[in-house]
Amino acid sequence: MELTLREIADSVGGDVIGDDKTVVTGINSLDEASCGEISFFSDPRYRASVKKTDASALIVSKVTDLYQGPQVVVLNPALTYTRVATLFASPIPTYPGISDQAVVHKSSRIGRSSSIYPLVYIGEGAIIGEDVVLFAGVFIGDRVKIGDRTVIYPNVTILQDCIIGNDVIIHSGTVIGSDGFGFVKDGSTSVKVPQMGIVQIDDQVELGANNCVDRAAMGKTWIKRGVKTDNLVQIGHNVVIGEDTIVVAQVGISGSVRIGREVMIGGKAGFADHVEVGDRAMIGGGAGVIQSISPGEIVSGSPTMPHRLWLKTSGLIRRLPQFNDRLRALEKEVDELKRRLD
Amino acid sequence: MELTLREIADSVGGDVIGDDKTVVTGINSLDEASCGEISFFSDPRYRASVKKTDASALIVSKVTDLYQGPQVVVLNPALTYTRVATLFASPIPTYPGISDQAVVHKSSRIGRSSSIYPLVYIGEGAIIGEDVVLFAGVFIGDRVKIGDRTVIYPNVTILQDCIIGNDVIIHSGTVIGSDGFGFVKDGSTSVKVPQMGIVQIDDQVELGANNCVDRAAMGKTWIKRGVKTDNLVQIGHNVVIGEDTIVVAQVGISGSVRIGREVMIGGKAGFADHVEVGDRAMIGGGAGVIQSISPGEIVSGSPTMPHRLWLKTSGLIRRLPQFNDRLRALEKEVDELKRRLD
Amino acid sequence: MELTLREIADSVGGDVIGDDKTVVTGINSLDEASCGEISFFSDPRYRASVKKTDASALIVSKVTDLYQGPQVVVLNPALTYTRVATLFASPIPTYPGISDQAVVHKSSRIGRSSSIYPLVYIGEGAIIGEDVVLFAGVFIGDRVKIGDRTVIYPNVTILQDCIIGNDVIIHSGTVIGSDGFGFVKDGSTSVKVPQMGIVQIDDQVELGANNCVDRAAMGKTWIKRGVKTDNLVQIGHNVVIGEDTIVVAQVGISGSVRIGREVMIGGKAGFADHVEVGDRAMIGGGAGVIQSISPGEIVSGSPTMPHRLWLKTSGLIRRLPQFNDRLRALEKEVDELKRRLD
After folding, report:
1. Would B339 be classed as within a structural domain?
2. How far is residue C329's CA from residue C342's CA, in Å, rounded to a whole number?
């Protein structure tokens, strides 16, 4: 892939300072860029790196005199960098058409431009759109629907009746539509509550590796447009996650939790069942959410408290030994004072 | 599926109030039930829903005048609902016989009524009972034994010599019989301790998706009858879990932990190795169990403490800033008193 | 497998006390050993077991008179036990050559002595060494390189361009080379940062089941020689883990974290992104590492503090209700003193 700086600047809406015919063949970090590659500078902590980079061009938010080569000036260098990297990124490796070593039920319908690797299983009545990629080891259950341009990495399992939108990415080992965890006690025995619902995953969702998304007891577990999850995330039955919410690795979301849109959930946070989280709330890593969180609230800790309070208490917890000493000293002094007064 | 209210009432031992010839075609929540469906009412919080439900019949613990249609009166409506839902639930989708696109070692023995999907691997000397379902992507190692009516979902791995009972359900991505995590240091190098034991899973166990159950160093890791685990649970080598114990998502159980029967373990709880947990203990979500827990104890926190104490301390931790202020105020006042007395 | 005590002693460098022609056919714990088996005794807590063991020989650190049979005296009985167990352990079950039910791209190169099970997928230009075992359900992406004697268990996914060394073991369900979790906000939308790097796993690494190791945004995520991870571990993009570091189950390591050599990381610990951990540090189970840790430091808690301080604070947290009572009592007494002085 070769692009001139002019072509790059035009595609991201930036101004070129310097030679706009410079040819760019790739993108890299300041320290690792070599001749022909473009890099990116906006954080002043990287001043030393920018001085000695071998990059042939830079994306910047304002022109810097620390660098002699041509510069593309843009409003949002991080976003621009991402868009330029996308130009140079390798495409998803596809398989030409439907492999005859895949196992595809004759009643399923698959878009002509889709790529079905060997060792894929596709069940009865499944419907798969155009430009979809299903890697080896993917299991698609009966009547599953998958939209266009969705990529499903190796060894993903999508069980019967689940619905996956357009432009979805699901990383390896993730399970969609396993049974929700529901039992009713009959004496000491746990009787299984049949899990009769589905999982619905809307457009532009990306799920990390080894996630679990359980099907609803009734109705649907619903992951809305633009949600991104990291690896090893647990999403229980009947959970609803709003648009553009971010879920970091190893988060656990219990049954029937409702999470709003554009929420940020830090790694390893856990949620008790049925809690609600308002839009644009922020939940710290490792938080234990046992009560509902209002829109825009910023919380941390287990159980959660306002993030600023958590910062204070975290600092004070390590001073508990001194607290104890101070209490003891006070008790002595008060006793002494009493004795003197008596 | 169509059943009369009389047939339903007879199958669960309930009394019909109203027309027992009412035909029921499905089951649903109060809010989503439509004509022909039966629903369920016992929690007074759902009074508003019961008034406007379209359900054609209700399962109730006592007759309600909020609803005009026929009612089935039972002792335990939650359990009855579960049993009725099971009548209407779709059966597990099976494959007719042993697929010739499965890879089955000729020395293995498989029950005639079992369902082996394409892309299953079954190793040397494996023995599989009747009415078993193995979905695509399942790996069954050499000499594995599986009882009757067990269902193993896609992409599950069961390694050599492990033993799985009757009526077991194992959800997708779960690994049974991976090596326990055992090393001995030789200088800075970690020398692997061979893991020579097995995993034994008894009847009626259900394991969630993406669980890991390690084989024993020697002897067996043992999950007893009726245990239910949620998703992403870690079970180390030589762990024993007693009958009917419930393990919620993302729990981590270290090597050689022994857990009693009917224990409840909340999500994300972790256990140090070798601890013991008595029968019917309850362990809160996120608890860190570093000491043994007595039968019937209810604990929370990390490290664990009695649940009631944990409730108190959780409340008090957020008051640490005030504690600090109060200590400082007291110190000032005591100084002042001393000065006045001197 | 049959070995004389003399052969065993010679292979581990020990002295035989008693009959060195004793034939040993296996190894077992003191309680479960039967005639013909060798066992191991060094911890005095097992005195009762050693008195009644049926083992035909013992490995000991010094001769014991609690046992009448022959004894092999060695410097490090735990390490010797491991080496002897390895002599008796079953070999990894292999498949003869490359199965014709595997899907192997014609451009890949595979060592003649390697074992490729049915239902393996190997992509374009992959290079696989000698004596490698790939179990069924393994996915090897395009241009992946795998060294000699590496064992990859069922349903592991290794995505394009990743590099795996010699003598590596990867347990089932683990994913190597999934995309790192990187997004840049464009308004409320998350724009995916292309993940253009790889994962490199050096010699003698062992990764547990259902791990996730993300590929680097640029450059590589790097797991160095001798690292051992337990199950369900998350390793983010651009993480570097030093030689011989031990990572217990359910640990989460965020992007760009750098961990030194011979570090011990307890189960469920979590790391904020970009933190650094020095060589030979020890991090307690469940720790929340949000700041860098110096070499040799021993920390626990969330956020981390020195382990000894954590022990104290953990004890004091459960005394918070008394602290509160003591504060209240002091406040009353000081008020009373003030009144008496006024």
Report:
1. no
2. 20
Tens digits of residue pLDDT in A212-230? 999 999 999 999 999 999 9
> Do C290 and C167 share a structural domain?
yes
CB C253, CB C234: distance < 8 Å = yes
- Please provide the distance, in angstroms rounded to a whole number, between the alpha carbons at the two ends of chain B: 92
The 3 state secondary structure assigned to B65-110 is CCCCCCEEECCCHHHHHHHHHHHHCCCCCCCCCECCCCEECCCCEE
Q: H/E element holding A220?
A: strand A220-223
Could you read off the pLDDT of A301-317 as tens digits, one per residue? Answer: 999 999 999 999 999 99
Q: Does A92 contact chain B (CB < 8 Å)?
A: no
CATH classification at residue B244: 2.160.10.10
Q: Decide which of A33, A56, A88 is a domain's last residue.
A: A88
Choosing from B171, B237, B274, B307, which is the catalytic residue? Answer: B237
Q: Does the residue B182 lie in any domain?
A: yes
Pick from C55, C88, C121: which residue ends a domain?
C88
Residue A138 CA to residue C136 CA, distance in Å, equals: 14
Q: For chain A, which chains pass the contact test of at least 3 CB pairs under 8 Å?
A: B, C
Instruction: Tell me which H or E stretch contains C317.
Output: helix C307-317
What is the ipTM score, two decimals? 0.96
Domain presence at residue C112 = no
Task: Identify the domain containing residue C215 by its residue range.
Answer: 156-303
d(CA C289, CA B179): 28
Q: Provide the whole-model pTM.
A: 0.97
Domain count across chain C:
2
Q: Left if phi > 0, otherwise alpha if psi is -120 to 50, otherwise beta: which for A9?
A: alpha
B171 is catalytic: no
- Cβ C267–B252 below 8 Å, yes or no? yes
pLDDT, tens only, C38-85: 999 988 889 999 999 999 999 999 999 999 999 999 999 889 999 999
Tell me the pLDDT tens digit for each residue of A126-172: 999 999 999 999 999 999 999 999 999 999 999 999 999 999 999 99
Phi, psi of B16 (to 5 degrees): -95, 125
Q: DSSP of A121-151, one letter per residue?
A: EE-TT-EE-SS-EE-TT-EE-TT-EE-SS-E
What is the helix (H) or strand (E) element at residue A228, kind and residue range?
strand A228-229
CATH number of the domain that B58 lies in? 3.40.1390.10
Assess if residue A327 is contained within a domain: no
C-alpha count within 13 angstroms, C-beta hemisphere, residue C136: 29
